[in-house]
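Table S2 (continued). Query chain:
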Amino acid sequence: MKAKPILSFLFALLFCLTLQAQPWKEHGRLQISKENPHYLSFQDGKPFFWLADTGWEMLHRLNRAEIETYLENRRTKGFNVIQTVLISEFIHSDKLTNYYNDSIFINENTERPAVTPGNNPDNAKEYDYWDHVDYAVKTAESKGIYLAFLPSWGEWVTPRSDKALFNTNEQAYNYGWFLGNRYRSSPNVIWILGGDRHPDERSNGLELWRAMAEGIADGTNNIKKMDGKADYSTTLMSFHCFESSSKWFHHDDWLDFHCWGSYHAEVNNTRSFLATISDWNLPNPKPTINSEPNYEGHGINYAIDDNGIFTSTDVRMAAYWTVFSGAAGFTYGAQPIWQFTDETRKKLSSKTYMNWKEGMDLPGAFQVGILKKLMESYPMTDLIPDQSLILAGQGDCGSYSCAIRGKSHLFVYIPTGNHTTIKLGIISGTTMKASWFDPRTGNKTKIGEFDNSGEKSFEVPGMSKNLSWLRSGRGCDWVLILEDVALNQ
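Corresponding output:
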């Protein structure tokens, strides 16, 4: 007789948890932090740590049930953004473009999206490509996840072939307007223009991308007036390619934060911290994101047979180098995930050694979530990268240690076990507490309490009880945490 009240309570609890999982409802829209322009926050000032996954081909290769499976897996690991592309790098226009064989456009005309009446997924004539995108948006929304849409992969705007889809500003604007208008009421949509190709690889490339950005903003505002002006206060936009978007668009009103990628050429990729530091030091700075680092499981310099693959160690190094150098977050990637390959889907990149469902649980995917939890557990918007804190043992290249500090705490990432000496007296408090944080597990071990003055040297712990002697080399990475004891963390 008590089953119904219990079920009602459980359903009510589930509903409340769903609401709590949608941060824009509680904290307002996402924007640049008013406290620190290097970071992102919600309207009410709550900090937002960007943790994205490169689910590039999600909209093209997954069906509805698989999208649900993928997004739920990412939600449980702490991902709050999925970067995905609308016009795929590999397949586009009036071809078989998604799981349901739906086309994006009619006759490859970017000003004629293939939209049909109705949206019943059980009716193939009704359920079109854009209905499938809508489903992904709503599913992500229900899980509190943002979708960072790339409107078109860069190849179709600034091509390295003769296959451009966008040749005029009007085409770019009208497509952007369609997108902005269709998703103007979706609180979890972010726009990232570009996609590998640099915007100046074509003589009119910058104009085309700016026209698309204008169209997105005008569509979002339900205004259609291509005049080189738009209200960008209602959108959050960036641009993704190898170099930072700051190279071309730092002073553009439409671009809110910068993106770039350290990419897949080498281990010990120092661009992870060098590009971040470069953007940090710009006048009138904007947040910056490493939006395509080395993918876990990807061939090093694209050659698995000769060079092996990137591992979770490489993921951690790129992530901590990026974030502790002042980035507003980090984007993770995995070789089987971005292309969603399995036994039934053609590999879009050779030498992929597992299917996407297995790839969802690669160790790096858990470990970047540990980084997010660390950053969210301390004040974030007052952080400043400060390498002057490291008096000895900073190292270089693959052994480079980096430090970032707030008013009452500081973090030092030590990637290869360097014996490290830290300048004290920089953060608040007369007494500081020191701890080791394991970036592989998230475990935190107290070192002790010390006077917050002078300097102090630290030696990383052994990797385990059985490997207590192992304190240096790749994979022996640790985070040193120093904090004002008054924090009570």
